[in-house]
Amino acid sequence: MEMPINRFKQRLKAGEKQIGLWSQFGNGAATEIVVDAGFDWILIDTEHAPLDLAVVTDQLRIIQPSVSSAIVRPAWNDAVLFKRILDAGAQTLLVPYVESAEEAQRAVIAARYPPRGRRGVATTHRANRYGRIGDYYARATDETCVLVQLETAQAVAVLEEIADVDGVDGVFIGPSDLAASMGYVGQPTHPEPRKLILDACTRAKAVGVPIGILAPVEADAQMFLETGFTFVAVGSEIGLLRKATDDLRAKFRA
Global pTM? Predict the structure, then answer.
């Protein structure tokens, strides 16, 4: 059996723009509906959604045969969480709240097998198709993509140091936490955080690291794509359902 190619990582390296969707429901039918829309990537969120590993695995089963690439956000920068998610078949991780090169290095090490890292080795799991992919251990690291999320002003200040860590494939801006770290809780579009976000994009491009962001407002998403962000989540299935139901109800109010 052949080792699956990480299409998201391939396209990231090629500099292609990729449009994503945030997924927090953990519901099979909902995931099938959004997958068939054809987004480039879908983020399975375990940090801010009540999803356990069994649910994540089922989500991967739905997403991976589709045209969309699956990305999983662990609850924290934790080697045990990484090991379990990677064994379940995830190939791309979005690591939350990375604030330094040391923390980025810790994430990379946890996602790689020895001698390049310290990922725990199991002989039979879903990622190696229960032992049927003969060259899995030789190729797993190359097909694993590590994205680190910069969510504070402190993290953005050392963007170049974080990006320089071998094994960091991309950086991702978390607008809400970034704004909160600057004293603007609940104001991710405030001019000051926005200025820092655009500066981060300029600096990321200067050092050649792909940069992504969550931008559920269409005008913002278009602006970020034009500015140079290469992987952008343009919404979430929760946000889409909320808006559609609110809009529909509004049409029939007395």
Answer: 0.98
